[in-house]
Design goal:
The structure holds two protein chains of two kinds. Chain A is built from 20 helices and 24 strands. Chain A is an alpha/beta fold. Chain A has four domains: 5-219, Pyruvate-ferredoxin oxidoreductase, PFOR, domain III (Pyruvate-ferredoxin Oxidoreductase, domain 3, 3-Layer(aba) Sandwich); 223-405, 3-Layer(aba) Sandwich (Rossmann fold); 412-483, no CATH class; 489-601, Rossmann fold (3-Layer(aba) Sandwich), CATH 3.40.50.920. In chain A, helix 17 (506-518) packs across helix 20. The longest helix of chain A has 21 residues, at 463-483. Chain A is globular. The longest helix of chain B is centred in the N-terminal third of the chain and has 14 residues, at 51-64. Chain B is an alpha/beta fold. In chain B, the strands form two sheets. Chain B has a seven-stranded mixed sheet, sandwiched between helices. A two-stranded antiparallel ribbon of chain B has the order 5-6. Chain B folds into two domains: 32-283, Thiamin diphosphate (ThDP)-binding fold, Pyr/PP domains (Rossmann fold, 3-Layer(aba) Sandwich), CATH 3.40.50.970; 286-318, no CATH class. The chains are: A alpha/beta, B alpha/beta. The interface between A and B is large, with 103 and 79 residues.
Chain lengths: 602, 318
């Protein structure tokens, strides 16, 4: 709760009000308590209030009953990460109190349900400000119901609204929208629960808070999660067919596409297995319109053979990999960035393909469109390497200009005189396929295959052709590398330490850079979005720093570089490139990064 | 708005077709396709291989049914018979081992204007691709699957296949195979295929008949065509060849093709077994089910351009 200023003493006996620019609120309970719903309301409210908002959420591996938390960081300015420590903790049970108290800042506020939290260590009382309320009983009072455990999420939302002076009419509207189409009694009960919470005086609280006006006033913002943004990006890009198999955390994307694509005349197939999913998507892509498949963890391993076929046959395809902890079944509900190797190099033989990693929810939307366009332009599989950290968090971002962005990529079946898809003399070196159904007047039709082939796709054992075609597949991706924009340095272009990030680590790294620079350290950041191939010009950037640390959520490996670190080492042979890695299944804390930098530069 | 490094404006719809466009053909303008025009690479099959017969009859089917050249779509997986698409002068795909059906389903479900023919062998269909066989049949995806069953792995030179009979001696079962073979007919019926037929390469007229019936079937049509591997399993199907002292018994005229149990009963007869359509029912195809979902959804957004449909969703997320 930075920049606390002007404590105003209200006259009505309620606690004094402090003006703040941001707050980190953590809510802990069980997964059936509707905690994600409160988080969603807060995130959405913040989006409507022209405040940038970021949330960080974990879901329990078990379907219900396990510990569940939602952390929302609401800021008037730019919010780059979930926030290291919470300013306020709302906990529903003894176990949530005990498990999450440590995440609270010293002096932070813990609001607990005294119906369930009874044992408070007196030591804690001096460290944190405790507010105990019999939330479960108060909910029953407020709603006049008997279902004690129902509605306490919305009641708590009322308490939070009171504590942080949130916009009540907007929250009422959100509640109304949430329960629209259901029994009107449900919405009435929800509003009653909310009002019950909001009208509580919170007289035992030491202070209440009010957000300073946001910097983004007037922006037309929308709020959604990373997986949602990615799925909508694919729709905007013109993708109308996909196939997948359910696996966490990829499933959200396939569920959304299954439901939404028919509105646009498309469809998404749930297949018998991961291999069928990628095969079906490749078949549809060959049918003339780039299709999508995706998965997480083990599912990606299963798809590698077919992706190799698409590399060989040079078929455009988009594969979404929502990374989770591995190897094998690993840590299905935790964040990790350990699929970079399989994305870039998975499969037998030399199989160059494109890998792009989005860095935020907004970036998921635009990356999906770019992936489709790169697949089309270079006739290649493109892997979107997102992760659990982005997939399940909610952010507000400016409304995209959909009229301008939405693309029509329907197949072009205009007959042609003659065509060789794998034309070795093509000036741009890029393969162009004809969709089946396209008439070729010469009567010579192309085939697509996983065997090495000639210019029409017919198999060949010619060593010369294998050399030429291998070079062709490599060179078109190299050409993409040359076309890629060199990323900008975040902060001054020279200094002591350069922190290199990819994927969801962008926000924490940039926040770490900001904090370090404020403290007088010469640290800058560099975010790499295009992982395979890499853009040109990175070596020039590295030259201006004494240390280059690659911040990744994966293991340091045998040689201490991590996965992207090893690629950068291989390309630049620069001994100052080192890995800054961890695999605890959680996103980066700013302090963790800065402590490690300190230790590594000693 | 975030600027895209690869905007759509720089791309044509399906790639750079900087080629001379030619006008489309009407049905009336379609010229007959000679065998020379529809044949491509010379088959890599051994002399006497049963697969030659299936290929020749596919050519015949193309001409008999006056298919437009550009609409012929041939898909296969891996195996001797799966090299089929190279031998047909038409749009074709030679996919990975065992996965021809999901690939072809992707084509069928996204391109309702094409009828996809999938060719393959017993290893591709019932071993590595067994799961896909079951699910493509159950989903009733509209396409024709012709399995050239030779009871052996030929491309890799004589290993046991999922249809090799008990006792068959191969390089991987020098003592003779001990695994109960798959009965393709029973497998197909049990999985929910809506068209199940059996034929053999030595009876060309019958093969053509089955292909035509399969093509006309609205749904997943499956043909098992016995196709002798002269190299590794010569004489396997002599019992079905009257010229070699065998018999070619047709499915009885009074057989009810919609009777699943009767079909199953017929499928139990092994050599020579019965030839013809064992089972044929009409059940909504996956293609039709999906089309229905699409039309129901589209009705709500009549005449709205895609971006406005998306805008409606986004406006709710403000």
């Amino acid at each position: 709760m930075s920049d606390t200023t002007t404590a105003t003493a209200p006259a009505d006996g309620t606690p004094q009000v402090s003006h703040i620019s941001e707050a980190v609120i953590r809510i802990a309970g069980n997964s059936q308590d509707g905690i994600q719903a409160i988080g969603g309301f807060l995130a959405r409210l913040a989006g409507r209030s022209e405040q940038e908002v970021m949330t960080f959420m974990t879901i329990p591996s078990t379907i219900s009953g396990g510990p569940s938390i939602f952390q929302v960081r609401i800021g008037s300015g730019e919010v780059l990460s979930a926030g290291d420590e919470a300013d306020m903790l709302l906990c529903f049970y003894q176990h949530s109190y005990e498990a999450h108290l440590g995440s609270l800042k010293p002096g932070g506020i813990v609001l607990y349900d005294s119906d369930h939290v009874s044992e408070i260590n007196p030591e804690n009382l001096s460290k944190y400000r405790h507010i105990g309320l019999p939330i479960s009983s108060l909910v029953v009072e407020a709603t006049g119901g008997t279902g004690r455990e129902k509605g306490k999420n919305v009641y708590s939302l009322g308490l939070i609204a009171k504590m942080f002076n949130l916009d009540v009419p907007k929250l009422h509207r959100l509640l109304g929208e949430r329960f629209a189409g259901k029994d009107p009694k449900v919405a009435e009960t929800a509003i009653a629960a909310f009002n019950g919470g909001y009208s509580h005086t919170l007289a035992t609280a030491a202070e209440l808070f009010k957000f300073k006006p946001g910097e983004n006033v007037g922006l037309n913002q929308i709020v959604m999660g990373g997986n949602e943004a990615l799925a909508y990006g694919l729709i905007a890009a013109g993708v109308r067919f996909g196939a997948g198999y359910p696996i966490t955390p990829w499933s959200d994307i396939m569920e959304l596409l299954r439901k939404e694509l028919p509105k646009y005349g498309g469809s998404f197939m749930q297949t018998e297995d991961e291999i069928a999913a990628v095969s079906m998507a490749i078949g549809a892509s060959w049918g003339g319109r780039v299709a999508v498949t995706g998965s997480s963890g083990p599912g990606i391993s299963l798809k590698t053979e077919a992706i190799g076929w698409a590399v060989m046959a040079e078929i455009p395809l988009v594969v979404v990999d929502v990374q989770r902890g591995g190897p094998s079944t690993g840590m299905p509900t935790n964040v990790e960035q350990s699929d970079l190797n399989i994305a870039c190099f998975g499969g037998h033989g030399d199989s160059p393909r494109v890998v792009i990693a989005p860095s935020s929810v907004e970036d998921c939307f635009y990356t999906a469109i770019e992936a489709v366009n790169i697949a089309r332009k270079y006739s290649t599989p493109v892997i979107i390497l997102t992760d659990q950290g982005i997939a399940s968090r909610i952010e507000a971002f400016p409304m995209p200009d959909l009229e301008k962005i939405c693309q029509d990529i329907s197949p072009d079946l205009t007959p042609v005189a003659d065509h060789k898809p794998y034309d070795l003399a093509a000036t741009d070196g890029i393969t162009r396929h004809l969709a089946p159904g396209t008439r070729v007047a010469s009567g010579k039709y192309p085939v697509v295959t996983g065997l090495e082939h000639d210019e029409l796709g017919h198999p060949t054992g010619s060593p010369k052709l294998h050399v030429q075609m291998t070079a062709k597949r490599r060179n078109k991706i190299k050409k993409l590398g040359a076309d890629l924009p060199t990323p900008d340095v975040f902060g001054p272009p020279e200094g002591q330490v350069l922190l290199v990030s990819w994927g969801s680590s962008k926000g924490p790294v940039q926040e770490a850079v900001k904090q370090a620079r404020a403290a007088g350290d010469a640290i800058s950041g560099l975010h790499i979005k295009y992982i395979n191939p890499l853009p040109n010009g990175l070596e020039k950037i590295f030259e201006a720093f004494s240390h280059v640390f690659v911040v990744e959520l994966n293991d340091e490996g045998f040689y201490g570089y991590g996965q992207l670190g090893a690629v950068l080492r291989a390309r630049y042979c620069d001994p100052k490139i080192r890995g800054l890695n961890k695999v605890d299944g959680l996103t980066w804390k700013i302090r963790e990064i800065l402590d490690r930098v300190k230790a590594m530069t000693k | 708005m975030t600027a895209l490094s690869f905007p759509s404006e720089t791309l044509t719809r399906t790639g750079n077709l900087n080629l001379v466009p030619v006008p489309p053909l009407s049905d009336a303008d379609r010229k007959g396709l000679t065998k020379k025009e529809v044949a491509a690479d010379h088959p890599t099959w051994c002399p006497g291989c049963g697969d030659f017969s299936v290929l020749a009859l596919y050519f015949k089917l193309i001409e008999k049914r006056k298919m437009h050249h550009e609409k012929i779509t041939t898909v296969a997986g891996i195996g001797c018979s799966s090299r089929f698409p190279y031998f047909v002068q038409a749009h074709g795909a030679h996919f990975i081992h065992g996965r021809a059906l999901p690939f072809a389903s992707g084509v069928s479900l996204s391109r309702p204007d094409l009828h996809v023919f999938v060719f393959g062998g017993d290893g591709d269909a019932f071993s590595i691709g067994g799961n896909h066989f079951t699910h493509t049949a159950r989903k009733n995806v509209k396409l024709t699957y012709c399995v050239m069953d030779n009871w052996v792995y030929g491309l890799t030179k004589n290993q046991t296949s999922p249809t090799s009979p008990l006792g068959y001696k191969s390089k991987t079962d020098v003592w003779g195979s001990g695994d109960r073979p798959i009965n393709p007919m029973k497998q197909a019926i049990a999985a929910g295929a809506t068209f199940v037929a059996r034929t053999t390469h030595t009876n060309p007229n019958h093969v053509l008949q089955m292909m035509e019936a399969a093509m006309d079937h609205d749904g997943f049509s499956f043909i098992e065509c016995l196709s002798e591997c002269t190299e590794f399993y010569p004489g396997a199907f002599d019992g079905t060849n009257p010229r070699k002292g065998g018999q070619f018994p047709l499915v009885p005229a009074d057989h009810d093709v919609t009777d699943e149990y009767a079909a199953y009963k017929l499928a139990e007869e092994l050599m020579p077994g019965k030839f013809g359509i064992l089972y044929k029912v009409n059940r909504p195809t996956k293609n039709a089910n999906e089309a229905k979902i699409v039309s129901t959804n589209r009705e709500k957004f009549a005449a709205l351009p895609d971006w406005q449909i998306l805008q409606k969703n986004f406006d709710r997320m403000k």
